[in-house]
Write a structure and sequence with these properties.
The chain is built from three helices and no strands. It is mainly α.
C-alpha cells in the first residue's frame, strides 16, 4: 500500500474543517433563527439547542471558530495519515 503524506493530509483536513466552518457561518447569517435551531436540533439528535443560541455573531467569534475548525481538521487529517501509515506497514 502507498503511504499517505502526513503533512498534506493534515492540511487537507484543516482546509476542509475551515471550509465547513465558513459554510456554517454563512448559513447562520442568512437563515432565520427557527431554521438554524431546527438544523442544530437534528444534528444533535433532538437535543434542544434553542436555549443556548445567540442572536448575533461577532467577527472575533467567527474568525476564532474558523481557526479552531481548521486546527481540529488538521489534527484529524494528521492522525488519520499517521494511523493509516502505521497500519499499512503491518499488511
Amino acid at each position: 500500500m502507498e503511504k499517505i503524506n502526513i503533512r498534506n493530509a493534515g492540511i487537507a483536513g484543516g482546509v476542509t474543517g475551515g471550509a465547513l466552518s465558513v459554510i456554517c457561518l454563512i448559513a447562520v447569517l442568512i437563515l432565520p433563527s427557527e431554521a438554524e435551531i431546527a438544523i442544530a436540533n437534528s444534528l444533535m439528535h433532538s437535543i434542544d439547542v434553542s436555549t443556548i443560541t445567540k442572536a448575533t455573531v461577532s467577527l472575533t467569534g467567527a474568525v476564532l471558530g474558523i481557526l479552531i475548525a481548521f486546527a481540529i481538521g488538521w489534527f484529524i487529517g494528521t492522525f488519520f495519515a499517521l494511523t493509516y501509515n502505521l497500519l499499512s506497514k503491518n499488511t
